[in-house]
Amino acid sequence: MTKGSVIFQTFNRADTIMRAIKSPQAQTFRDWELVVMDDGSADDTVDLTSRVDPRLLLTRQENRGFARLALAAGSAVRDLASHLSRHQVRRPGKILSSARA
Predict the structure, then answer these.
(1) DSSP letter (8 states) at residue 18
(2) Segment 54-72, tens digit of pLDDT
(3) Which of 44, 62, 82, 84 has its CB 3.0 to 4.6 Å from that of 14, i.e. a possible disulfide?
(4) Number of domains, the chain
């Protein structure tokens, strides 16, 4: 069975991060992990993500820019990867349709 990773980067987005987390939770494809790569947020982003879903993996670094964070994604990627940019929301079924392609 295909396993998937949903990856997104964040910096001080406590106001929108829960909406982004709900996107993979609403998917029909259930075997996924959500990798949140935090670039040193100073707001409540980390506190909000730390208790949401056991499939969520939080990666943190001091604020150094997203290019360095992108390198960390390689260690978390499974059979299938989907990148959410700036907390976009995917329609339910999007990850599953990608896995079948």
Answers:
(1) H
(2) 989 888 888 877 655 565 5
(3) 44
(4) 1
What pTM was estimated for this model as a whole?
0.70
Residue linked to tokens 């069975």: 1
User: What would the pLDDT profile of 12-24 be if each residue is shown by its tens digit?
Assistant: 989 988 888 888 8
* Tokens encoding 64: 């150094």
* Among the listed residues 98, 23, 21, 85, the one whose alpha carbon sits nearest the alpha carbon of residue 54: 21
What's the distance, CA 16 to chain centroid?
13
CB 75 within 8 A of CB 59: no
> Sign (positive/negative) of CA torsion 10, 53, 44, 17?
positive
Nearest CA among 31, 68, 22 for reference residue 49: 22
> Domain of 25: which CATH number?
3.90.550.10
Which two structure tokens, joined as six digits, stand for 93? 């079924």
